Amino acid sequence: MIRYGQQQAAQEAAEAGAGPDEHIAPAPRISIQAFCETVETASAIQAAGEDRRLDKAHLKMQMGGVTAALQAYQSSPTPNVILLEAEGSGDGILAGLDSLADVCDPGSRVIVIGHVNDVMLYRGLMRRGVSEYLVGPIGTIDIVRAICGLYSSPEAKPVGRIIAVTGAKGGVGASTVAHNIGWAIAHDLALDSVVTDLDLPYGTAGLDYNQDPPQGVADAVFSPDRIDANFVDRLLTKCTDHLSLLAAPATLDRVYDFSAEAFDSIFDSLRTTIPCVVLDVPHLWTGWSKRALIGADDLLIVAAPDLANLRNAKNLVDVLRAARPNDRRPYYCLNQLGVPKRPEIKPADFAKALDDEPLATIPFDPQMFGTAANNGQMIAEVAAGHRTTEIFRQLAQVLTGRTEVKKARSGLLTPILEKLRKRA
Ligand SMILES: Nc1ncnc2c1ncn2[C@@H]1O[C@H](COP(=O)(O)OP(=O)(O)OP(=O)(O)O)[C@@H](O)[C@H]1O
Ligand SMILES: [Mg+2]
Questions:
Q1: What are the tens digits of pLDDT across the range 83-123?
Q2: What three-state secondary structure class fits 181?
Q3: Is the separation of the CB atoms in 147 and 283 below 8 Å?
Q4: What average pLDDT does the chain have?
Q5: Ligand 2 mean position to 251 CA, how many Å?
Q6: Which residues have CB under 6 Å of ligand 1?
Q7: Å from CA of 165 to ligand 1 middle
Q8: What string of DSSP letters covers 306-331?
């Protein structure tokens, strides 16, 4: 939270968006009303209202600060959250809040945005039950963070991170990468994770983890009225200590046409109980697949080194960045590098076109990947000490926002983390 005395951090956060280790859980269906005094704050709040994490919330905004708020609540009930910008002196702000307390329902939370950096004011506000005091100038992500923070306790920090993995083209290894990352998150980082296979007709997660799962995700998506954490929990197949699978049916007895919101309640429900959800999003561009990507906390696009992949990866990055202006840009990695005799587009050219370094480059290794796929094993299980195993472990670390290496192996530098530092 940006509080009294943390203006520099506030400034940095405003410029950088959410930090790499930061996970801001989306806010529930709440009502928010903002009363601004300055155009800068108004535009930051307006942009916050369009942030994916406030998708479910209803935000109304008007100018006029505390005077307008007092007027509005004389006759109408107060919302879940009131955002109040207050220019002027500490005393004036506190007096305004005292008047507001007379008309404010006790259940409403108040976030004050002020321009005075004063510890006495801060204490006065906290005594009056103000949830948060933000010192301007504030950025969009500060507003998002403050509102969402009201509804998620710090102890619950890891719960509900969704990592979506998709391919820039079919067959580039997106599912393989997703499954290996999910496995590494569970095995190396010891975080409970669920791999959700969204390739309903053809998904391979069941095969890759050597499971013979029930319908999984299909049972959930075709029974929207029954979805809650318990129901979804029963559909999971346990693969290892920390890893479960929400499998695809991988049958063709019905067709799989879904509305854009069809998976929302499944994701919401997974978020409430599972620290880390890896979505294997097939190479599609439908309402629901686009929504799954936009709504994820972190994104990894897997691309093979050819021209179509380059074009598609760039299009994906552009559209996803535009839809998630307050998020870190989507990561991408290159897979299947070094197929004999195949001309390739170099990682440096990808980096230039996408204006970003790939997070990893994974060599083409048909022997190792083929063995893993046919045995229903992960790369780490068929080649524990292999460089590619290390890559999946590092990808798991970066995508879960962990920068500490649990089993540090100093011989293998951490090039992914190095790259991240360079991007910062
Ligand atoms: N680096 C690699 N080297 C060799 N083979 C690989 C590599 N990565 C993935 N493969 C193989 O490529 C094939 C396709 O992989 P996968 O099913 O993961 O791709 P996908 O992008 O999910 O495809 P789809 O578009 O069908 O969902 C699999 O047989 C997999 O074992
Ligand atoms: Mg796939």
A1: 999 998 888 899 999 999 888 877 789 999 999 988 899 99
A2: helix
A3: no
A4: 88
A5: 15
A6: 167, 170-176, 199, 204, 282-283, 335-336, 362, 364-366, 369, 373
A7: 13
A8: SHHHHHHHHHHHHHHHHH-TTSPPPE
